[in-house]
């Protein structure tokens, strides 16, 4: 029978790598909660129409990359390729405008699905953590979103960040720019790659995003969208930059930064890392002032970002090497039938008082049992034997020094906890 394996572009997250994921999730919860974002968990699948209307039919995501199927009841269903559309759908569906104080600030962590060609940093099931601020046009909200992204990355140990920034203006600005851009692209059509030529009429902004070298060269003289901003959009963009300057967030204007989703307006941004190779963006986001109304809600502006967790994992691995598993504080070994009946009770009591402990299920003598404790990386082995139990004591062996002591069962928890602090603080365990 053929071996069953995970599908291409998907993977299992197991130890030790999973420790990084837990760290990313815990850090995200801490950093986002400190900035008063509340968590939202939307369904992993939604009506296909949500993404067609939200992300845009001309985008690669909607036209080529969605996992779409018909459910048994005949609904067209799609595994979410991103979370912003779902968050906005929930905001509209629950009538949060007026019910919750504005702006509404959400964060999320979870899997997303895109049928892309898998490569380093590009999965078919991947994970994002992100935030959205709905119902604020204040430039401080753009800056807050970017600041929170940087603070999260800083908390994960990434300093020296530079945020790539651009403004796509408002729809009228984009229409004027589009006209000039299409005219320019037609004039250099012969130098563009075939994909970009195809996009001239369908989605000319995306041509600016092309990774093909000859196309990039041909784009040198292309009209920049920042030169087409209305006074209002330009003032907004300046204010965002001033806010970020004040927070000492380093930014760089990248006039070709257009993003792969149709809902953006005004501020767009990305954070890149050289450690990622071709898929260099670890974070992307921006303002999407038209999306809430597009999805049937009130005309309220919004801004947010999402961070690719697989990509962040690659960066963390390059910076720190593989994650280290911290073994249990104690490994409990029962010797004899009576002790065997009591060992889970002792484990339960120790765990209740904050000791991380594992119990031996193996049969065999001391040598075998201590070996099992060692393989698990335990700090101490605790032996529960009949004669000691009768006295209310157990013996504790420090597996790093080999020292052995006998102590009252009631004193075990404090001793084992103290030993853990001594042994693992240096490894940075909290
Ligand atoms: P996005 O740029 O499509 O934006 O994705 C955000 C991040 O998710 C990317 O920068 C990348 O790190 C990660 N990512 C995307 N596709 C993959 C993949 N196939 N494998 C691994 N990582 C991937 C959005 O999704 C928007 N919803 C962001 C946003 C939120 N804009 C406003 N609010």
Structure description:
The structure is a single chain. The chain contains 17 helices and 16 strands. The C terminus is likely disordered. A hairpin with an 8-residue loop joins strand 9 and strand 10. Helix 6 runs parallel beside helix 11. The strands form 3 sheets. It has an 8-stranded mixed sheet, with helices on both faces. It is elongated. Helix content is 40%, strand content 20%. It is α+β, with helices and mostly antiparallel strands and 430 residues long.
In summary, what is this structure?
With 430 residues, the protein is of the alpha+beta class. The protein is 40% helix and 20% strand.
How many helical stretches?
17
Number of strands: 16
Question: Radius of gyration from the CA trace?
Answer: 28 Å
Helix content: 40-55%
The profile of the biggest β sheet is: 8 strands, mixed
Distance between the amino and carboxyl termini = 46 Å
Integer average pLDDT: 94
Oligomer: single chain
Shape: elongated
What keyword list fits this structure?
single chain; 430 residues; alpha+beta; eight-stranded mixed beta sheet; five-stranded mixed beta sheet; 17 helices; 16 strands; disordered C terminus; binds histidyl-adenosine monophosphate
List the helices and strands and how they pair.
Blueprint: H1 17-34, E1 38-39, E2 45-47, H2 48-54, H3 60-64, E3 68-70, E4 76-79, H4 84-93, H5 96-99, E5 104-113, E6 125-134, H6 139-155, E7 163-167, H7 171-187, H8 194-202, H9 204-207, H10 213-218, H11 231-246, E8 251-253, E9 265-272, E10 281-287, H12 291-294, E11 302-308, H13 309-320, E12 330-335, H14 337-352, E13 357-359, H15 366-375, E14 380-385, H16 386-391, E15 393-398, E16 404-408, H17 412-424
Parallel strand pairs: 1-5, 7-8, 12-13, 12-14
Antiparallel strand pairs: 2-4, 3-4, 5-6, 6-11, 7-9, 9-10, 10-11, 14-15, 15-16
Helix pairs in contact: 1-6, 6-11
The structure holds histidyl-adenosine monophosphate.
Histidyl-adenosine monophosphate (HAM) is lined by residues 82-84, 114, 116, 121-123, 126, 128, 130, 132, 260-261, 281-286, 288, 304-306, 308, 310-311.
């Amino acid at each position: 029978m053929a071996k069953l394996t995970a599908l291409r572009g998907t993977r299992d997250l197991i130890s030790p790598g999973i420790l990084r994921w837990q760290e990313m999730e815990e850090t995200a919860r801490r950093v986002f909660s400190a900035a008063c974002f509340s968590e939202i968990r939307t369904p992993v699948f939604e009506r296909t129409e949500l993404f067609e209307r939200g992300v845009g039919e001309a985008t690669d995501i909607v036209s080529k990359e969605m996992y779409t199927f018909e459910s048994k009841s005949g609904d067209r269903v799609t595994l979410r390729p991103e979370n912003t559309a779902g968050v906005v759908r929930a905001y509209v569906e629950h009538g949060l405008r007026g019910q919750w104080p504005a702006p509404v600030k959400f964060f999320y962590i979870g899997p997303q699905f895109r049928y892309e060609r898998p490569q380093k940093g590009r999965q078919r099931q991947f994970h994002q953590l992100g935030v959205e601020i709905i119902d604020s046009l204040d430039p401080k909200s753009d800056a807050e979103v970017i600041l929170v992204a940087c603070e999260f990355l800083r908390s994960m140990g990434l300093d020296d960040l530079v945020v790539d920034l651009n403004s796509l203006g408002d729809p009228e600005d984009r229409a004027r720019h589009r006209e000039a851009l299409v005219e320019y692209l037609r004039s250099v059509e012969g130098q563009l790659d075939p994909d970009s030529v195809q996009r001239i009429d369908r989605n000319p902004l995306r041509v600016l995003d092309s990774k093909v070298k000859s196309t990039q060269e041909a784009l040198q003289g292309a009209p920049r969208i920042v030169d087409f901003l209305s006074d209002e959009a330009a003032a907004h963009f300046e204010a965002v930059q001033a806010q970020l300057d004040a927070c000492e967030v380093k930014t760089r204007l990248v006039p070709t930064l257009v993003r792969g989703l149709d809902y953006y307006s005004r501020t767009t941004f990305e954070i890149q890392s050289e450690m990622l190779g071709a898929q260099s963006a670890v974070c992307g986001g921006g303002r999407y002032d038209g999306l809430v109304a597009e999805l049937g809600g009130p005309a309220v502006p919004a801004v947010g970002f999402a961070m690719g967790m697989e990509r962040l994992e690659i960066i963390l691995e390059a910076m720190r090497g593989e994650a280290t598993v911290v073994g249990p504080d104690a490994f409990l070994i029962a010797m004899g039938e009576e002790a065997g009946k009591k060992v889970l009770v002792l484990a339960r009591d120790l765990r209740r008082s904050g000791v991380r402990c594992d119990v031996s299920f193996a049969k065999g003598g001391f040598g075998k049992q201590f070996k099992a404790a060692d393989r698990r990386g335990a700090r101490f082995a605790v032996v529960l034997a009949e004669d000691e139990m009768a006295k209310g004591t157990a013996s504790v062996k420090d597996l790093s020094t080999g020292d052995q002591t006998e102590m009252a069962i009631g004193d075990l928890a404090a001793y084992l906890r103290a030993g853990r602090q001594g042994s693992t603080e240096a490894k940075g365990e909290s």
